[in-house]
């Protein structure tokens, strides 16, 4: 299994909380941004889909926090994706740079809502297909 | 001139940054939430208006930061509003509780966009009218 | 098993994203704020502990998203806590008001760092003890 | 007068609110991040200074919102700085890319607190000196 997308980012000071480390909730922001950038690369705009009544929504998220990021840290956010019936499962890991130390491991299960109903979005499926992890 | 709306809130730890005080941007969140709750009280839902193509947007904001809020602090966010031609001008001040120490003073100039064009929203005007500060 | 703490909150519009629903990351903010308020009630200040070199940190979080919250929604955030060796495990569920519809179910595993090292904080343990869920 | 620092960024979807545009408070995040990156380039770490009891704090901010940023937009955040007695005044403007349309104009007045007292930080002064706008 290998990553199909990587995005480099840098901690912004407002993301750090009074413990002096990146607040946990911001890792969800990091991995959401990474997914959306990956989708854009695959030809899928999250905002455009929403305009057309199609919403990719997160059904479940699991995050293990390994090493906290701090002010000034750079990091790379990596992504793999698999298909499990109606779910698209994203495995998203973040590594600190330059030492590649693991920051978080996460799994994000997403489903597709078409006008609010659970469904299969053929267009999304076709665009994502080349990226699926088939082990 | 007097305040026409007040909302009590409490600092949430994730709003504090590595200086151990509420990050500046969060005061804009506090005053936005206060305006929207005030509008709701006046019978105006920001989200419903958006659905109908009417957006109240902020044209300009000025904030003076006087005393920083910290973890555990409670505060009250107070609001006055005046009309200045097509602008609604909100004066929004925050005071720490229980000592009523001034936290921020702010002025928020808003205008109304109707389907993206600057305009006067009669409905909004009528609902806000009883609250205008006429000195 | 029963909840030992409950906190009522209301969606703030800035917490909603372009899908018109509360952005996923904000649920982590809601449950963090709920934990910290619960700890305060138990006599534990997250900010004070940090000053003394003791940090309760989240090792793992799992969130299942059931019903999205929208602009104007009120909700109650409920919490149970158990002890599992060095971990404090918080079960935190959010229900929409007034219909009590389940919004999210979550589990948050936390550990205690004393000057950066994994440890058992006797003070924290004593204060939390009365609240542990012993089934 | 000319800009002494520029930083390119891209809108992240979680920064957009239910109006489908970047929430106003996030522009304060953008300009804070730009200032801190500028300070780093000048040899000043905001986080390190805080550790040594020196805090650069914002006394006043004025922002004029001209064109809203949307999902997918890239932009450049530009900065000038002047000295006005104990204040460092940052002029920070954001332009959408690639059309260079003005997004916001802002002025941020900052002061230096040394162990909580208003003061002049000689070290900061020396490092910033080469960048001051002297018209």
CATH topology of chain A: Thiol Ester Dehydrase, Chain A
Rg result of chain A: 15 Å
Largest sheet entry of chain A? 6 strands, antiparallel
- How much strand of chain A? 35-45%
| Count of folded domains of chain A | 1
- Helix-strand topology string of chain A: EHHEEEEEH
What do these coordinates show?
With 135 residues, chain A is an alpha+beta fold. Chain A has a single domain, classed as Hotdog Thioesterase (Thiol Ester Dehydrase, Chain A, Roll), CATH 3.10.129.10. The first copy, chain A, contains three helices and six strands; from the N terminus they run E-H-H-E-E-E-E-E-H. In chain A, strands 1, 2, 3, 4, 5 and 6 form a six-stranded antiparallel sheet that branches. In chain A, strand 5 and strand 6 form a beta hairpin. The longest helix of chain A has 18 residues. The first copy, chain A, is globular and about 45 Å long. Chain A starts with a strand and ends in a 7-residue tail after the last helix. The relative contact order of chain A is 0.24. Chains in contact: A-B, A-C, A-D, B-C, B-D, C-D. Chains A and C meet through helix 1, helix 2 and strand 2 of A and helix 1 and strand 2 of C.
């Amino acid at each position: 299994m290998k990553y199909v997308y990587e995005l480099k980012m840098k901690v912004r000071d407002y993301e750090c909380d009074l413990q002096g480390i990146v607040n946990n909730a911001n890792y969800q922001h990091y991995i959401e941004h990474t997914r959306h950038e990956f989708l854009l690369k695959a030809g899928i705009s999250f905002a455009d889909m929403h305009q057309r009544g199609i919403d990719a929504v997160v059904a479940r998220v699991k995050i293990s926090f390994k090493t906290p990021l701090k002010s000034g840290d750079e990091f790379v956010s990596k992504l793999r994706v698999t298909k499990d019936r109606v779910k698209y499962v994203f495995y998203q890991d973040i590594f600190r740079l330059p030492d590649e130390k693991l920051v978080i491991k996460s799994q994000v299960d997403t489903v597709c809502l078409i006008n609010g109903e659970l469904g299969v979005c053929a267009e999304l499926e076709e665009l994502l297909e080349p990226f699926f992890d088939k082990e």
